[in-house]
Known about the structure:
Blueprint: H1 2-6, H2 16-21, H3 25-29, H4 35-48, H5 54-60, H6 64-79, H7 86-99, H8 109-129, H9 137-156, H10 168-190, H11 196-226
Amino acid sequence: ILSALIHGADHAGIPNTQLIKEDSPLAKVYENKSIAEQNSVDLAWQLLMDNRYKDLRQAIYATESELLRFRQLVVQVVLATDIMDKQLKGLRNKRWETAFSTEHQDENELDSVNRKATIVLEHLIQASDVAHTMQHWHIYRKWNMRLFLEVYKTYAQGRTDKDPSENWFEGEIGFFDFYIIPLAKKLKDCGVFGVSSDEYLNYALMNRAEWERRGRSVVAENLEVAK
């Protein structure tokens, strides 16, 4: 819950790639790795450590080891929302394969449970981050437009070179095919949502099909609003 609350803290609507290109101070601090995400964690963690939240901290952890484990989980889960980092994606895929493989049944049961819990949490926050794609079309349409307006504003300010309307339609098709639908299938496979997993996958498939039919006109409408 905390990771979901903080994962966009202080996000300026500028992608990490652009922060790196601009050689921003934050990019230097975080050495060009998951810049916005690490910044969110640091700001939120400083706030959590404030004396005002002493009771909350005591409710979250009671020992130093619990604190370290909690901190590790928060960092991993928030960084899971940086879906553009290929190295992090590769590590998550490897953890998923290890957690749900039948080849590790002889390991310590607690380690197995912890590994599964961690990787499921990472995928849950990823699903939450793009939840609009797995809901009714009008929900998807609403948040897709808001993201477009945010990205277009960056372009209008001269902070990116490419007009997002030029490849927004194709980009969404690829996003569904290579990220959203595989993610929905993973959530179904791990069983964390029970029968609701079918609903999320079905909505993702329906929105993908609807976007293929109406996406170009939607992009044109978005562009009119942006201008």
